[in-house]
């Protein structure tokens, strides 16, 4: 089997070179090429032809090919549908902020978690992505736009903590000084709340921002929209979040998609405020994105301000998240689903 060379840490690459009878410094050279985003071994011009041939024989470089690209006419947000070697597809979104470019990448093709409001969740699960396939999404966006990405959010398709080892490998690789050198403080990881993995992540004491998709103040409402809650209920999740706070000193961002008549009443806000009181936390209120077939609608405008006021009473700051690329369905899962439906239609004709 060929080695996925871009997923290797530098010390593993050194071992590979030693196995090939090559000097150790070759590893640093190759590592640099891989993380600059070369897509073939031929481009490694300071590596001998003999070694390049050996690499072609034994290894491969993961690449993300652009299948589709949508550009928002409102704010220049770019949404990509990428495909990998086996034809599997994922979405990724490139956003421009005043402080630079942020890429929102996928960690799995599909998702097992089945959240009822989420297009990805409704589409089922195909497979985990490798660390190199996560890197490849960023590299493809940098190349396509001639830019450097400075911030990353793991908020695309998939549940990052359900692909823990590959995600941690990606985090360590992307923040490597010899590689893309994007520091942990510039990376956010969003989870639906896989409690044991939150403890594990906390113990690693990475300086990541953790976003927790809470979306409801109690088990009754949360279990209706997020099946994961049946396994890891709200109280357990919030305990894990407090542990994360304590271990890392980092503030947690709670995501709260406001759904009309489901989770947006004043009593929901009060219950949320009581439960988050005393935590180092911020709440991001997101008008839920309407996904066809789910039957959910965005909350009425006044609900957001009401939540902000009630939460402030418990010392919790809340803001409404600016939605970028709303004309191109920038929230993930929808483009892939549409692409599959289109393909299915073509195939069925
Ligand atoms: N699986 C992870 C990360 C990917 S989802 C998680 O669930 O956190 C990224 C974010 O988009 C999550 O906060 C998720 O709850 C939210 N999301 C999914 N579908 C949405 C929709 N229709 N409207 C608004 N937010 C949505
Ligand atoms: Fe998966 Fe996150 Fe979508 Fe839930 S919201 S189905 S965890 S991608």
Question: What's the arrangement of secondary structure elements?
Answer:
Layout: E1 3-4, H1 10-19, H2 25-36, H3 49-58, E2 59-60, E3 65-71, E4 78-83, E5 89-97, E6 100-104, E7 108-110, H4 119-122, E8 125-128, H5 131-145, E9 149-154, H6 164-174, E10 187-191, H7 195-204, E11 209-213, H8 219-225, H9 228-231, H10 234-248, E12 252-258, H11 266-276, E13 281-287, H12 301-312, E14 317-320, H13 334-348
Parallel strand pairs: 1-2, 6-9, 9-10, 10-11, 11-12, 12-13, 13-14
Antiparallel strand pairs: 3-4, 4-5, 5-6, 7-8
The protein binds S-adenosyl-L-homocysteine and iron/sulfur cluster (SF4).
* Superfamily (CATH H level) name of the largest domain: Aldolase class I
- CATH domain class name of the largest domain: Alpha Beta
- Please name the CATH topology of the largest domain: TIM Barrel
In sequence order, what are the helices and strands, one letter per element?
A: EHHHEEEEEEHEHEHEHEHHHEHEHEH
Shape: globular
Which CATH-level-2 architecture of the largest domain? Alpha-Beta Barrel
Reported for the largest beta sheet, the result is: 10 strands, mixed
> What's the number of helices?
13
Q: Pick out the low-confidence regions.
A: 342-349
Distance between the termini: 38 Å
CA radius of gyration is: 21 Å
Structural account:
- Helix 1 packs across helix 2 (25-36), helix 5 (131-145) crosses helix 6 and helix 11 runs parallel beside helix 12.
- This protein has 349 residues and is an alpha/beta fold.
- The chain has helices at 10-19, 25-36, 49-58, 119-122, 131-145, 164-174, 195-204, 219-225, 228-231, 234-248, 266-276, 301-312, 334-348; strands at 3-4, 59-60, 65-71, 78-83, 89-97, 100-104, 108-110, 125-128, 149-154, 187-191, 209-213, 252-258, 281-287, 317-320.
- The two termini are 38 Å apart.
- Residues 342-349 have low confidence and may be disordered.
- It has two domains: 3-60, DNA polymerase, domain 1 (Orthogonal Bundle), CATH 1.10.150; 65-347, TIM Barrel (Alpha-Beta Barrel).
- Helices cover 39% and strands 21% of the residues.
């Amino acid at each position: 089997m060929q080695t996925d060379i871009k997923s290797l840490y530098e010390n593993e690459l050194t071992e590979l070179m030693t196995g090939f009878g090559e000097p150790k410094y070759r590893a640093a050279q190759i590592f640099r090429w891989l993380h600059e985003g070369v897509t073939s071994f031929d481009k490694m011009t300071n590596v001998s032809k003999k070694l390049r041939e050996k690499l072609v024989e034994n290894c491969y470089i993961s690449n993300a090919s652009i299948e589709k690209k949508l550009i928002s006419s409102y704010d220049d947000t770019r949404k990509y549908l990428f495909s990998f070697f086996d034809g599997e597809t994922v979405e990724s979104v490139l956003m421009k902020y005043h402080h630079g470019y942020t890429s929102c990448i996928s960690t799995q093709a599909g998702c097992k978690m089945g959240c009822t409001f989420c297009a990805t969740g409704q589409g089922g699960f195909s497979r985990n992505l490798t660390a190199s396939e996560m890197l490849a999404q960023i590299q493809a966006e940098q190349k396509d736009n001639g830019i450097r990405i400075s911030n990353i959010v793991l908020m695309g398709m998939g549940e990052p903590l359900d692909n823990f080892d590959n995600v941690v490998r990606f985090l360590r690789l992307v923040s490597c000084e010899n590689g893309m050198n994007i520091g942990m403080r510039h990376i956010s990881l969003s989870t639906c709340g896989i409690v044991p993995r939150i403890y594990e992540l906390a113990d690693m004491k990475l300086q990541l921002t953790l976003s927790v998709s809470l979306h409801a103040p109690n088990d009754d409402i949360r279990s209706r929209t997020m099946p994961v809650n049946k396994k890891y209920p709200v109280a357990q999740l919030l305990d894990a979040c407090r542990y994360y706070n304590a271990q890392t000193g980092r503030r947690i961002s709670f995501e709260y998609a406001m759904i009309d008549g489901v989770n947006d009443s004043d009593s929901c806000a009060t219950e949320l405020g009581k439960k988050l009181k005393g935590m180092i936390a911020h709440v991001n209120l997101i008008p839920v994105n309407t996904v066809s077939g789910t039957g959910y609608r965005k909350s009425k405008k006044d609900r957001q301000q009401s939540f902000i006021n009630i939460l402030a009473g418990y010392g919790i700051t809340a803001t409404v998240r600016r939605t970028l690329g709303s004309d191109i369905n920038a929230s993930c899962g929808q483009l892939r689903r549409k692409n599959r439906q289109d393909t299915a239609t073509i195939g069925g004709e």
